[in-house]
Input
Amino acid sequence: MSVENSPAAPTYARIHLREEIDVKYMLMMNVKRDKAGGDWQITNWAPEDIKAHIGFMIKFSGELKQSGSLVGAEGLAGPSQAKIVRAGGNGAPEVTDGPFAESKEFLAGYWIVDVDSPQEAYDIAARASAAPGPGGKPLNMPIEVREVMSGPPPTE
Output
């Protein structure tokens, strides 16, 4: 049974695929913090390893763009620069530091891809997961894949 026809597949995905509506997925790259609880471990890598990793990411995103699958992609600043914002009592934003210091992983970047099936999104995520780390060894980092919800299902 294919993923899109499985009972566990998201209802929206099945509806979108059946009606041949574009289906977008967000692929989120989560990385581990360094042992000191700071930002990404990449800051401790050798310069040539950082260069190889960034080069891979640029090439990877370029290939997705050339294929027509890439909707958008961005790297994100580390958690030390993150802020949490809530609406204050008077409507003004209340800004505090965040995310929580005890988190071991954080969202480092994302891609939004427009593909024909969940499997295509999974294949792209697996390629991103294999980005090189120290010594060129694939990182096998977790890439979270979620469908981008474009709206409620059509009424019949």
User: Anything to note?
Assistant: The beta strands are 23-32, 70-75, 83-87, 93-97, 105-115, 143-148. Confidence is low (pLDDT under 50) at residues 1-9, 13-18. The radius of gyration is 18 Å. DSSP finds three helices and six strands in the chain.
